[in-house]
Specification:
heterodimer, A: alpha/beta, B: Aminoglycoside 3'-phosphotransferase, Chain: A, domain 2, 2 domains, 3-stranded antiparallel sheet
């Protein structure tokens, strides 16, 4: 794997010696912990006790038990789990190409890298959370997935890869580093440079004009509306861009993934599928009661005034595919 | 994978859709479904067409050959039945492995999922429910009678299958004395239940999979999602499943309410329960099924569901986090991971049934 990695400080090749990675240019030294490249400062971040407990359970009793206990604990405080394999069902929208090199930025609980492993030759998974990276390392070993390479990357450092390395880059939630990147535009431009010709950038992004975002301005992620995203992707040089709305939320397992360019499919969705939200369990329904009520009123108005096209402006977020 | 399927469909368009204009491009609307179901669905929209052209069911796992073959066999069989059946089920267009993924392309059926209206007491409104019950029992009667088989060797094989299922069930769930008594009662009746015939079983006959289309003259009805179907199942299972799940998802309140909805459907002496039992009895009569076997049939149905639920969740937990609903149920019993899969919905129903069987039998 190391031959694919560059120094995240200066972008020059790394040389591996025992468990150490040396940069031949800036002489920076990075370590490998449990076989995982650790691009970060030497501190005790990874020795945090909570993390250790979670990872110990994963290692000794299995990733599934650790995840169950984690979700179980969260459920006690009504924080419902956010990801399962439905979150990566967008992979079926991509062309079959088993030789692809994939980069996943932001691993969550490993679902996306694991699910993308069977449509890729190699999956490089980068995260700034040591817990997520270690968990992925344990989970992929236990699930016998051999083509995933987890990498810890501290916020503020560049991705340790050469230009034109990937066929697919998946950016989950808003993981771009605002401290370093001057803007989202720069970040997308940077990711564009990492893609091979014809490579695809897949992003899960917030919508600045979503009802949930407007009602909760303290939302920690900055975001844009669909028009700004369109403008940015075109300026960066992506040729083919497709927009989908994952519903009810963009950063959780969706119940629907609606193509936003096809007006007739939107109308069909409003008339025939949107009412299905009423059929979910009361627990699920309660979790998005406010957003649902607002959406219901909005949809009635849009259908009445034949303004289905406007739906894309107010969706909670987007799944975007941008082809180089 | 869908781009390859699109290419294949467009190249062979006239073969699959001889009377539909070939679109220039196809867009896909995704409906991921439940995580433990193992499939995800896409609706295909051509250009600016108002309704989907076809539906694509994608199996998330690779080891689903048997599941796919079952569905293909059953859909092909149903396509040869009378219009009353063949027009109410999806037509299979393609079943194929594309880039390592099992895909079933099926025709689109009109309608919206069957709705339920709840009254102030928390049970479904009778008038509305009766209309639904009449609709589905008529259809199930036709399906059962059309696909019924009483072949001896088939019966022997199924008798063995059910006995093994019950053994597995006993081993997995650890039964109380009352539950063991119910189990033995069921075992005694298995042969006579199977001798009454086997028929096609949908396997997920809940109202979400029943599409109702009401033009001016007559309400039409169709049945989708045959993923869990069986060519030879027990005649009343789909009806039991329909009644058990009819309003449990829309019942407001805590998870305890879900068991309450089961109890008010089968054990309580209320007008909704009477309506349900009336239709069960009527269905038995129409299929010439012994009413004395009903109690054992219902127990067997709950056992089969509990085992199926356990196996489905076990498979799900091998690949992914357990569904939210499963965790919530486990949470309500404060169980650890090892026990979570054994504290789910259908085993709860079985235990409740063992406890209150005489109330179920009342009125049947």
């Amino acid at each position: 794997m190391i031959k694919n990695l560059l120094c995240p400080r200066c972008g020059h090749p790394l040389r591996e010696e025992l468990n150490t990675l040396f940069c031949v240019s800036c002489l920076a030294t990075w370590y490998k912990i449990n076989g995982i490249p650790y691009f970060g400062d030497e501190h005790d971040k990874y020795r945090n006790q909570d993390i250790s407990k979670f990872l110990c359970v994963a290692e000794s009793d299995g990733w599934d038990k650790a995840l169950y206990e984690f979700v179980y604990k969260k459920s006690k405080f009504s924080k419902i789990p956010k990801e399962d394999q439905r979150i990566s069902d967008w992979k079926y929208l991509l062309p079959a190409h088993r030789d692809r090199f994939t980069l996943v930025i932001g691993c969550g609980h490993s679902t996306v890298p694991i699910m993308l492993a069977d449509i890729s030759k190699k999956v490089f998974a980068v995260d700034s959370s040591w817990k997520n990276i270690m968990f992925l390392n344990i989970r992929k070993d236990q699930q016998k997935v051999k083509n995933i390479f987890p990498i810890y990357l501290q916020r503020g450092l560049s991705l340790p890869f050469a230009r034109k390395s990937f066929d697919l880059i998946s950016l989950n939630s808003n993981h771009w580093d605002k401290k370093r990147s001057a803007s989202f535009y720069n970040y997308v431009l940077y990711l564009h440079s990492l893609l091979k010709p014809d490579g695809v950038l897949q992003l899960n992004l917030n919508n600045r004009l979503a009802a949930s975002h407007i009602l909760n301005p303290s939302d920690k992620y900055s975001s844009y509306d669909i028009f700004t995203y369109q403008k940015i992707f075109r300026m960066v040089g992506f040729a083919n861009i497709r927009y989908y709305a994952p519903l009810p939320y963009h950063n959780e397992s969706p119940l629907f993934v609606v193509p936003l360019e096809n007006t007739q499919s939107l109308i069909y969705f409003f008339r025939n599928l949107f009412p299905l939200f009423d059929m979910v369990s009361p627990e699920v329904k309660r979790s998005y009661a406010l957003e649902y009520s607002i959406a219901k009123i909005g949809i009635r108005l849009m259908l009445f005034f034949r303004l289905a096209k406007l739906f894309k402006i107010f969706v909670p977020g987007f799944i975007i595919f941008a082809r180089k | 994978m869908l781009p390859e399927l699109t290419k294949y469909m467009l190249t062979n368009w006239n073969r699959f859709f001889p009377v539909t204009r070939k679109p220039n491009n196809i867009d896909f609307l995704g409906i991921p479904g439940s995580v433990d179901g193992g499939t995800t669905t896409f609706l295909a929209f051509g250009d600016q067409m108002k309704t989907p052209l076809f539906v694509i069911k994608v199996h998330r796992h690779e080891d689903v050959y048997e599941r796919v073959t079952n569905e293909v066999k059953v859909l092909n069989y149903l396509a040869t039945c009378d219009d009353d059946i063949s027009n109410t089920v999806p037509r299979l267009i393609i079943s194929k492995k594309i880039s390592g993924v099992w895909v079933l392309v099926q025709s689109i059926l009109k309608g919206k999922p069957m709705d339920v209206i709840i009254n102030k007491k928390g049970t479904p409104k009778l008038k509305y429910s009766e209309k639904n019950f009449r609709l589905i029992t008529t259809w199930l009667e036709k399906l059962s009678l059309t696909s019924r088989s009483v072949d001896d060797s088939l019966c022997n094989r199924h008798s063995q299958y059910f006995k093994e299922t019950i053994d597995n069930f006993t081993f997995l769930f650890g039964l109380s004395a009352k539950e063991l008594y119910l189990r033995d009662f069921i075992i005694e009746r298995i042969s006579s239940i199977i001798e009454e015939g086997l028929c096609i079983q949908h396997g997920d006959f809940c109202r979400q999979n029943l599409l109702v289309f009401s033009p001016l003259i007559r309400t039409r009805f169709s049945v989708i999602d045959w993923t869990d179907c069986k060519r030879f199942g027990l005649p009343l299972h789909d009806l039991f499943f329909f009644f058990t799940t009819y309003f449990f998802q829309v019942r407001r309140g805590t998870l305890k309410k879900i068991t309450e909805s089961f109890e008010s459907t089968f054990f309580e002496d209320n007008s909704y329960s009477k309506l349900v039992k009336y239709y069960i009895a009527k269905h038995c009569e129409a299929l010439s099924v012994e009413r004395s076997n009903l109690s054992a049939r219902f127990g067997l149905f709950l056992i089969e569901r509990a085992i199926a639920e356990y196996q489905r969740l076990l498979k799900c937990s091998n690949n992914d986090v357990l569904p939210r609903f499963t965790i919530n149920l486990a949470l309500s019993e404060r169980t650890d991971f090892k026990e979570a899969l054994k504290k789910q919905l259908w085993i709860r129903y079985f235990r409740a049934y063992a406890d209150k069987r005489e109330l179920f039998e009342k009125g049947l």
